[in-house]
Specification:
The protein is α/β, with parallel strands linked by helices. It is built from 16 helices and 13 strands.
């Protein structure tokens, strides 16, 4: 009788905690996409956002892209402006001759600074030649390469730089960004699948102007090929029992919930950014560890080889530049990816800028305090332009 009463009380307490946790999760997730439940298996698509995406950002071959003849405004701790000209690159030509084109992610695009504050602009001033900026936010090196292929016939110069962050090893394995970057539900993209030691390009399954119901039909196909569905999405998805999901990630979710509660109470965005920062740190650490995984490392190396061979075929020279995010510099695990790029530099021209930053005690001064990983400010872009210029000269590329 006594034991059955204890069991009943424990069971009752667990049910109460489960109900409490269920309500807390659904309360907090209204403001925070990174808390996911079963509802996120088929997320709700806002018609206005979906239509704006199709109109302004969608690209059937790349997933998304900056449109030609477009302008935009971005906000970090200040307002910045960018413009994409009719030829598809950022800013304007300043000189009569061009000898470098740059493809890559937001560190190639240079988020949160004006057109005249990018590292490409500062490098062009040193060279007295144009350095064209074709970067796009959140690209992996796979999308960067596919964009190069769209523009290569228009490039009458022989140096092509691919500038990406170390997290590119994760980005090349995403088929739908939502499975790794929860809430990025418009992030459909192509990706290279490595099967039987052969790379196969899987095309973007999202077609322009598809309805919500049509999008739901392509999701099962994506699940089969996106490793992050099982590797990350399912493991972090709250469903019954919520307690089990919470305790499997107790340290992570405790920090998230704590900061979101403070945000709800105070409306101070610092606490929201702290919660987002925990997500970012986890993603960065996970991407570092992917370099230790043989399959992931081989796939990245094969893609880089594919790019190099195509560039050589096009009678151009490829340079790979790895620029760390601020979070990368704060973890000892950055040595893992640095060793990878050090090893491949024997075969590919590769500049990993990680140690260049770490040599500076005040490297944080080169970055904005933005919630998306710490992008380079103008000082940081000037800094890497100087480093890249020296490395290009040292390697007799310019």
């Amino acid at each position: 009788m006594y034991k059955s009463m204890i069991f009943f009380y424990i069971l009752f307490a667990l049910i109460l905690i489960e109900i409490f946790l269920y309500n807390i999760v659904n309360y907090l997730k209204k403001d925070f996409n990174w808390i996911i439940t079963s509802d996120d298996e088929k997320p709700k698509f806002n018609n206005n956002k979906l239509n704006n995406f199709y109109k302004n950002t969608y690209n059937k071959l790349l997933g998304w892209d900056r449109k030609k003849n477009s302008k935009g405004v971005e906000k970090s701790d200040k307002i910045s402006y960018y413009s994409i000209n009719k030829l598809g690159f950022r800013g304007k030509k300043k000189y009569n001759k061009t000898n470098i084109s740059v493809f890559g992610d937001s560190f190639a695009f240079c988020r949160y600074v004006n057109d005249e504050q990018t590292w490409e602009y500062h490098l062009s001033k040193k060279l007295k030649k144009n350095v064209l900026n074709y970067g796009v936010g959140n690209y992996g090196i796979d999308q960067s390469f596919l964009k190069y292929k769209l523009y290569k016939k228009k490039l009458d110069h022989n140096i092509v730089i691919f500038n990406v962050v170390p997290e590119t090893i994760a980005r090349i394995n995403s088929y739908w960004k939502h499975y790794r970057e929860f809430g990025n539900i418009l992030g459909f993209k192509p990706f290279f699948d490595l099967t039987n030691n052969k790379l196969k390009l899987r095309k973007n399954l999202l077609k322009k102007n598809q309805s919500k119901n049509q999008i739901y039909k392509i999701i099962p196909k994506i699940k089969k090929h996106d490793i992050f569905y099982k590797k990350k999405f399912i493991k972090n998805k709250f469903n019954f029992p919520y307690l089990l999901v919470y305790f499997c990630n107790i340290k992570f979710f405790s920090k998230i919930f704590y900061n979101l509660f403070l945000y709800k109470l105070s409306k101070n965005e610092m606490f929201y950014n702290n919660a987002f920062g925990e997500v970012l740190k986890k993603n960065i650490k996970e991407s570092h560890l992917m370099y230790k995984n043989h399959d992931f490392a081989v796939k990245l190396r094969r893609i880089i080889s594919l790019i190099k061979n195509q560039i050589l075929k096009d009678k151009k020279r490829m340079i790979l530049i790895i620029t760390p995010q601020l979070c990368d510099l704060k973890f000892k695990s950055s040595k893992i990816y640095s060793n990878f790029y050090k090893n491949i530099s024997e075969e590919f021209t590769c500049f990993d800028l990680t140690n260049n930053f770490k040599e500076k005690k005040n490297y944080e001064l080169f970055f904005f305090r933005d919630k998306y990983g710490g992008h380079l400010n103008e000082r940081g872009n000037k800094f890497i332009a100087e480093i890249i210029h020296k490395k290009l000269k040292k390697n007799k590329i310019i």
